[in-house]
Amino acid sequence: MAELLVIRHGQASFGADNYDQLSALGEKQSVAVGDALRDMNWVPDRMVTGTLERQKKTLEFMGFSGAADEHPGWNEYDFYDLLRVRHGGEMPHDVRHDRRTHFRTLRETVFDWQAGGLEGTKESWSDFTDRIESARKFSTAEGAERVLVVSSGGVIGQLAAQSVEAPPKMMMTLNLQVKNTSITKFIFSGSRFFLHEFNSTPHFATPERAGLMSYS
User: Fold this and answer.
1) Cα–Cα distance between 210 and 135 in angstroms, integer?
2) Is residue 8 located within the same domain as residue 43?
3) Count of domains in the chain?
């Protein structure tokens, strides 16, 4: 069966005015995962990213040759928009800048979004899940046997949850576990699509690289 590897982007710039940039650590993580795949003799015959800068830069630092396609379905949900809507248009300082507060609040906010709350968001939960499915079909079409995608934690969490028919809330549980530049592997053939490996980081397994691991 063919393989789809979905890599979460490298660490972005949490709390900055422009989150959508790789940090220096994120650049190193991206190099490391690219090296690990080549060490395993895994070279893609198709590459796809979302349209976000942190996703495209991750693929660039991974160092594979050839052009990549883009599909906006691989983009992360707009968590800043969800949090602003929940807080009446102005995100509190600690929600924006304190990691623990941010992710605890985000978890409850996404649950509300999934249940049909948060009226006024740019994107509904059903629109989010529909575009992920569209991106999956786009990326696994046309006979490619080894597909490499660079995406984001929420998308990976939803794709993994959907593939095992888990309830919607499981998406967020998985989302919060996804490490930067981790590898989630699916196998597919025609309409068949299975989760094979979740959130693996062989590129951080050595003592020299263990310090590169991050979750946000």
Assistant:
1) 32
2) yes
3) 2
Q: What is the pLDDT of residue 16?
A: 64
- In sequence order, the 6+-apart residues with CB closer than 8 A to the CB of 107 are 172, 176
Sequence-ordered list of residues with C-beta below 8 angstroms from that of 41, at least 6 positions apart, any chain? none
Q: Are residues 203 and 156 in the same domain?
A: yes
CATH of the domain at 174: 3.40.50.1240
Burial of 211 (0-12, 13-18, 19+ CB in 10 A): exposed
Rounding to the nearest 10 degrees, give the CA dihedral for residues 93, 15, 106, 124: 110
Q: What is the pLDDT of residues 99-137, one digit of tens each?
A: 889 899 999 999 999 999 999 999 999 999 999 999 999
The β-bridge partners of 2 are 188
Residues 107 and 143 in one domain: no
Q: Do residues 162 and 205 both lie within one domain? A: yes
What are the pLDDT digits (tens) for 1-40? 999 999 999 999 866 667 799 999 999 999 999 999 999 9
Q: What is the pTM of this model?
A: 0.94
- Which residue range is the domain that position 89 belongs to? 78-122
